[in-house]
Specification:
By secondary structure, this protein is α/β, with parallel strands linked by helices. The protein has a domain of 138 residues: 3-Layer(aba) Sandwich (Rossmann fold), CATH 3.40.50. Helices cover 44% and strands 19% of the residues. The chain is built from 8 helices and 9 strands. The protein has a 5-stranded parallel β-sheet with strand order 2-7-1-8-9, sandwiched between helices. β5 and β6 form a beta hairpin. α5 packs antiparallel against α6. The radius of gyration is 19 Å and the shape is globular.
Length: 209
């Protein structure tokens, strides 16, 4: 008998500049059974974006209909302009096919998903230090000193959510961070909580012996 073949929903959070996008992209590159969640949005497609791959592009009426049908794990209305959300059915379909799904989302969104999908695994990716995070933001060369200070303060506030998470990954070395992510997936696939059906099958068989 094999262990559960259902995939895991991995909620990955962390402050801007910590490298969570790089970690996730490399993890997916190495493991084709891991997929990135595809969000729905009401904003217009940008050049080169493909519906169903980069986003599920919806009209406002379509999105609000999905809200009324409770079809999102989480959603937000950004600046009162465009909606963004995580379609529940897409995630469930991928998990049932045995794919692990990464949902890269902020702390507030992570809390919402965990409420409606308690079996999801929350992973927080943190920098080796706040000084290292600030240095990474400076090296980007894309923001003003004032913006960097604001991001640093926001990052510190976000990091207060670390105790809420199931796992902490320190992204000091990329390969080490990926190895830790791989270890988390392996451990969770062997967890008792993820294998209740298998356990019940065993126990039912024992009673019949």
């Amino acid at each position: 008998m094999r262990q559960s073949e259902k995939g895991l929903l991995l909620i990955v959070s962390g402050p801007a500049g910590v490298g969570k996008g790089t970690v996730n992209a490399e993890l997916i590159k190495r493991h084709p059974e891991i997929r990135m969640s595809v969000s729905a949005t009401t904003r217009k497609p940008r050049p080169g974006e493909i519906d169903g791959i980069h986003y599920f592009f919806k009209t406002q009426a379509e999105f609000e209909q999905m809200i009324s049908e409770n079809a999102f794990l989480e959603y937000m209305h950004v600046f009162g302009m465009n909606y963004y959300g995580t379609p529940k059915q897409f995630v469930v379909n991928e998990l049932n096919q045995g794919h692990h799904v990464i949902l890269e989302i902020d702390v507030q969104g992570a809390r919402k998903v965990k409420e409606v999908f308690p079996e999801a695994i929350r992973i927080f990716i943190a920098p080796p230090s706040m000084a290292a995070l600030k240095e990474r933001l400076v090296k980007r060369g894309t923001e003003t000193p004032e913006a960097i200070e604001t991001r640093t303060k926001t990052a510190f506030a976000e990091m207060r959510a670390m105790p809420e998470c199931d796992y902490l990954v320190i992204n000091d070395d990329l390969n080490e961070a990926i190895a830790q992510m791989e270890a988390i997936v392996a451990a969770e696939m062997c967890s008792v909580a993820h294998n209740e059906t298998v356990i019940n099958t065993f126990l039912g068989g024992i009673e019949e012996c």
